## 1
Amino acid sequence: MVLMEVKGVLSSKSLSLYPEVVLKEVDGNYYLRIVIGRFEAAAISTAHSKRQLARPISYDLAHQILAHVDARIVRIEITDFNSREKTYYAEIHLVDDEGKIHTFDARPSDAIALALRFGAPIYAAVKVLKDVGCVRSDDDEWVTAEVNAITKSVVAPREEHPTIATSAVNQLEQLKRRLNQAVAEEIYEEAARLRDEISRLNGDD
């Protein structure tokens, strides 16, 4: 497992109406960009920026309940990526008041939102990073700039990611990948929009 850190939550109007959480390898240059829902994006963004909401959301409530019974999340792991369904898998590792460890299957977005609230480390499997991670050999200013641009609104538009090719072929592949992710996450409104955009690029209109 590779230790990761949350760089922030990004939103790309050009390729998806839905945000992504960006994870970076702590001692390396691997990045993971995972498409998530708006609610999960807000939950991750507020915890990452250490902002306090007027009323607790479900993740805050879960944190309060677990802490009250002396249970805590000690780590989360992004364990696998299903290339056919374009779906990430994660596990939450929790220690109860007797010191017993419990492992729960979870969506990465839920696991990350909870990990941030407990200050728990986030890990990703080496295979996941090699299969779907991207490598940056230079600094990560492109991430920092985008994160700062949407700190107050996780669904605000941003400029297209500088590493995304501008050719129609590469854009089509990106759209297909996001379509598969949207279907897997049951974000059907987004899936329908992406299908329309793919059809337009294919000249099906």
## 2
Amino acid sequence: MKLSISTLGCPDWTFDQILDNYAALGVEGIEVRGIEGNVEPDKIPYFTEEQKDETLARVAAKGLKFIGFGTSASFHDAAKLQSNIDACKVAVDVCQRMGIPAVRVFGNNCPEGEGREETLKRIGEGIREVCRYANDKGVRINLEIHGTINTVDTVAPIIEIASSEPSFGILWDVQHSDKTVGDDFEEFYQTVKPYLRHVHIKDHLRASEPPFKLVAVGEGDIPLKKIIRRLLDDGYDGYFSLEWEKKWHPELAEPEAAFPAYVEFMKEFM
């Protein structure tokens, strides 16, 4: 089992703190969603051509590796489609330079009724274009299950369009699919299973105020143990990555508490 943690959960840590704490926790992977306040890949000083070698040496010295970069790119809005495609291409180039194997993208939202089919087609074609750019660069493009792209009906049409590209994959955020499928995750899982490359682990309370309130891993309603066991039994060999949304929800517990609790929870499956 391979564990990683998204830097979304430690927005106030320096790069040194990230390296020291991740190494001490015994996780292998750093999923990058910003470093020292910079969320755009070409704005992170450690990822420049000048600092690349030193950065990678520091990461390797701690027994760690970068395993993915999370962009904010989404493809549902026609007016912003090209700018998001362009931003993804920049991310792909930076990740190629840094040896980061995957770029995360979003769908992200799909209306009900009028415009639904057109939106899903736009998302699929946008992701396909980015995948074609990434195909020969050693970088994968992972569509995260997020927003309203979290049902079989919304994910399957996108897969149909983009999955012909070898760089295409799925990042299963189990919290977002739980909002629609709950405990009955089997059909959804079978839809994404052939393309599954990465998994976000988090937990929430379904009937809460506000709805789907984020809580510590293992303290909510998501059937995490069943999902994790099923993935392992099926031979999933990608990362299980904690996405502790501290940057967006500052009221959440500090990473010094949340990260060790996650590692402890995952020990049951090791």
## 3
Amino acid sequence: MSDISDISKALNFGKDYLLRSNVKDAELSAEVLLAEAVGLNRQSLYSHFEDKLSEVQQELYKEYISRRSNNEPLQYLLGYAYFRGLKIAVGPGVLIPRPETEQLVEVAIKNLKNNSNKILDLCTGSGCIVCSFANEFSDVQIFGTDISEEALAYAKMNIKKHHFEEKIELVKCNMADEVCEGNFDLIISNPPYVPTDVYESLDDEVLNYEPKLALEAGSDGASLLDEIIATAEEKLKPGGIVALEFHEDSLELAKSKFKTAGFKDCKIYKDLAGKDRILISKK
């Protein structure tokens, strides 16, 4: 039985176990999970090497390490992820927020002209986008839609946690079928956009745990594109904008289809990795 009675021993155990299990970011995972188990921040671990772990903390840490060794996402183990400074609850059945989606929100904000906005978030998932806009603007009306009960449960949890109930309304529906409102200043979406062949090559951490419904989108990654455009045509006010996160191989297709539908000022933005990732279009 491994000795994990203090922080130093526990940290070494976790690193070695995860390295042997071929877990990527093994050292980071061991640090984050140990910090969570003992109630410290990760940076403080190294100044508390001799601190003892209680039996409860030891058992919790061993459980964390065992689950992480099977490539269960770190965010699912913790029960949260950070998104533009907000702590967002996540777990099985909901997509983990990514930095690319933080960029999507930032680009959308830069393209909005004033602080009083009406916003529609399609495929809202955990609610990270709607919560981010509610946190950004004092005078805002936001609708978030999704077809997944599991995802909407997390979105509702996050909205309540951050006290955004008066700014955000959630609707279970396909795109915006059940949203009677119109004249939106912004329609934003991080829809499923991974082409099938790309999806099948993703890491086990994604394939085995995160919802396929939120990721895979047909052979060209664009299975929802026409519905998104139709929703924007119907619900967006003149001069309003669409902000779309999409696969790099499908963005030119998306840009072309928006132009054909009469949208203008279509511009593609790159993500932090230098890949085409975000499309802004104006009605």
